[in-house]
Amino acid sequence: MKTEFSASLAKLLIVFLAIFSLASLQAPISNNVLFPTLHLFTAIACPSPGAQQCGACQVAIGTICVEYWVPAGPSEDTLTATIFTDEQAEFTNIQSASPAIDFTDWPLTPDLVGPFTTSSSFRITSTISEAGYFEIQFLLANNFWGCDFNFGNAACGVHIRQGIAHMIDTAKFAANEPSISGQAVALDTPVPSDNVGGLPTANPCAWDALFPETGTNCIVGAPGGTAYRLGNATGANGISWLQAPGSQDLNAAAAHFVAAGIATGCDGGTGTASCTASTDSRLSGISSTAASHVPSFAIESDNVPRLHLGDSIAQQICYMFTGSYIIPCTYLSARSVCPGCIPESFPGFTTSTTAVNLSWGIYTAAYNSPTGPLPFDSSLYFRYNSRFVSGIPSIQPPNGPCASTAVPTVSAPDYIYLCNTNYDSLTSQMEYAPYLFLSGCDPVVGSTLNNNTRVACPTSQPSAVGGGVMAEDQFGKNAFTLPIFQQTAQFGYLNNGYFRQITNVGTGLPNYFTWLNSWNPSPVQPGTIRQGFKQSTSSASPFVDTSLWGQWIVGNVYDSLMVTNPYSGGQLIDWMILSVQQNFPPASLTYPPPPGTTQTFRFTLRSDLFFQDGRKVTSFDVAFSYLALKSTGAFAGGGAAPVTGITILSPSQFDINLSTVGPFTLLPLTSLPILPGAYWTNSGMSAWNSGINTCTATGATCYPSQYTLTGLGTPMVACALNCASFPASLMNVKLSQTAAGYDPIVNHTFVGSGPWQCGTVTSSGSGTCTSTGSQNPPVGGNYVLTRFGKGLAPASGVSSIYFRSNGNLAAYIWSQDTGDITHDFLNFSVVASCFGAAVTSTGPCAHFQQGIGANGGPIPVGLSQVAIVNRFVGTNWVAPFNWATSPPVGVIPLQPVLYENTLILNPSGVAGCTNPYPTGGYDC
């Protein structure tokens, strides 16, 4: 018969064996810091007592003043997101006598910055440069006035788009449009100036072969507004940024339309020369086919600058055809669109899996990042390379120019159907370049050559920057879209007691860490962060969502393997993983990799990861997520593009096998949402659970197992190596759940491992978390998300509380583990040696007998304390950084004050250790 003491010793032995298994992990741990340009920061003394609680300037990043961020949370119990018709309605609400929100999600307009700055009712963030841009888009698969754009390849299409580019002075628009005046700068390429990687703007002056430009701005790194501008706009129809009739630019626009075959000339003349000499820039001899192929201009009406931009360009187009600025006109259909609007929302975001939806022609588009500054490949490659269209046979070789690697999808990132072989080649070279920079070869700011790499180093493969500038050049000379401006921003919020609201350097106030960190001792609505959304989501499904607002909701419910530092887009933090070991060549692997593999990244999951329904997160869930999102072409799955397969080595360790690797690969690769396969597998939950139970049992023969995608159209999963216990069929996603209209809230599949959950989550699924009980609540409705672990004492459970909760961070700090395996093994040896020892106030055992790990104490060390120390063996909370000696930019110093709803978790430096936790310090 076993005694309680002998059973405890047996458990300790098992723990020791687990530690030895961790120590056996192979290969060095990557530092994960991929980019050389990081924001410089300095600590700033808080102007009021209690530096961590003042909600003032604690960190300076360039000119931005922010608070420390905490890699844990949430601090409040509930997050609501109330839906408005537009930002103006949201701003009106927050300024009302009884506002329904605490935080806004959209930059303040110039007229509100002053009042929000001077009023004691509000606070305002520092100015940031938004990681996004605004542009005019074209459906490149459509026919415009008799010209088939042929996916961006038709010469007549280039002329039309270049002509439209000449109609507007983008520099004047950015400077003079009242809703953004003083907050915007013009852009000539679809790459924000603060992009991670430092890509300069290509020299735009030779983009227009008919009307080349000269001047001091004709350089690499040219200021925005240089492209397609022969002279400053003098205004037309009362709009300062429109090129006037008879101006060089509007005449050039007319000449391009003539060159496209839409008209025979201007003012009754013939040829392009009749337009360059015109006094009114009016087309004549308009083709009979022009009126039968009238493009539809979808103009967003819920955002003032986009409305004014779209209206003015539409007026200019109609003027050139008709002599009148009235819209719509015979040659242009102009219609207002907005999210959830009547009569319609913009139809382009939802793509077809069987055909190309030709229901729109031109669109006033905007892109914003939900996570902060992004590398320049995020637009040039992941948005416009044709492997990201909805790949259907009729547009792929041998029938069309779109990439054969594209799969049918309802949420294609390349919904404009740009399929240009040369552009695809350049962006692929950029994406998978062997280096970021190539000294002496890359285009230099101030020079004139966009293809300097080809001239200076003709035998070298371009660097990412060299390839990027050439891709910008190809993009600009074909005018695939017309980039207009990027915006600087300040966000307003109520001055009602909140602090630790995080101003992301690329997205501002609304971001993952604001909702993770913000805390208020007396919120208006108890325990609740009240966020405003200027519009509703387009979907809550990770397979369908494309909007910024949907990404915010999805990103709060599902976690990813790594996250980006909110204060530095160049820093990645290991989030769900202990480590990533990178660049294993095929010859170094102990198994045959999938065909086409050149490199492999090895990931090890944290041992305390659980979904909100209590299921443990496994390597199989990660593999399923990557294969499902890639096979369906989901917007959220773009980072899996180079994946050749996933090889599972254990329940918590797996390899992602890759065809190619570039300077930016790790960031998009590790950004995919991790889904619980049980809810999405085509085989059903019971079959999934059976496979997981078999493969997580002691002595399981499931490893290694290798899963790949195979077949045309929507590919299916194939398995190699050890497949009997977890067959490929389990890894196939249920396609009906990836359809455009699928609602994970109605179907109770909205379950992740993230910090916020949808209602009450049980073993059978999620609850309800909107005012309507379904996704995309209407204006006046809301999302209501709940803290994963709400109602439970800090760090009182493993499977029932978010693994990065503030309570768990307090327990981690108390454990004294650091992630260094030698240190952590010795640390575990200490707590194990203290097992059952009498309470003492001195020596190494004293620490482990009190604090949060002892639930106050002092009590003898038992299995609970040992289990906590064991839980964090090998865990570096901010890996690959060292929190004490080389921390991530702007992270809060150790040991921080932490919050869980009304509970304040003080460190010993604040509360001392005289009294037991929770009155005393959690780290005593």
At a glance:
The chain is of the alpha+beta class. 23% of the residues lie in helices and 15% in strands. Mean pLDDT is 92; it is low at 1-55.
How would you explain this protein's 3D organization?
- By secondary structure, this protein is α+β, with helices and mostly antiparallel strands.
- The protein folds into 4 domains: 128 residues, no CATH class; 129 residues, no CATH class; 355 residues, Roll (Dipeptide-binding Protein, domain 3); 219 residues, Dipeptide-binding Protein, domain 1 (Alpha-Beta Complex), CATH 3.90.76.
- It is built from 23 helices and 30 strands.
- The longest helix has 20 residues.
- The two termini are 38 Å apart.
- The N terminus is likely disordered.
Superfamily at the CATH H level of the largest domain?
A: Dipeptide-binding Protein, Domain 3
- Which runs of at least 5 residues are low in confidence (pLDDT < 50)? 1-55
Shape: globular
CATH architecture of the largest domain: Roll
Instruction: Quickly count the helices.
Output: 23
Proportion of residues in β-strands: 15-25%
Count the domains: 4
Gyration radius, rounded: 29 Å
In round numbers, the mean pLDDT is 92
| Helix share, percent | 10-25%
Structural class: alpha+beta
Largest β-sheet summary: 7 strands, mixed
CATH class of the largest domain: Alpha Beta
Distance between the termini: 38 Å
**How many β strands by DSSP?**
30
**CATH topology value of the largest domain:** Dipeptide-binding Protein, domain 3
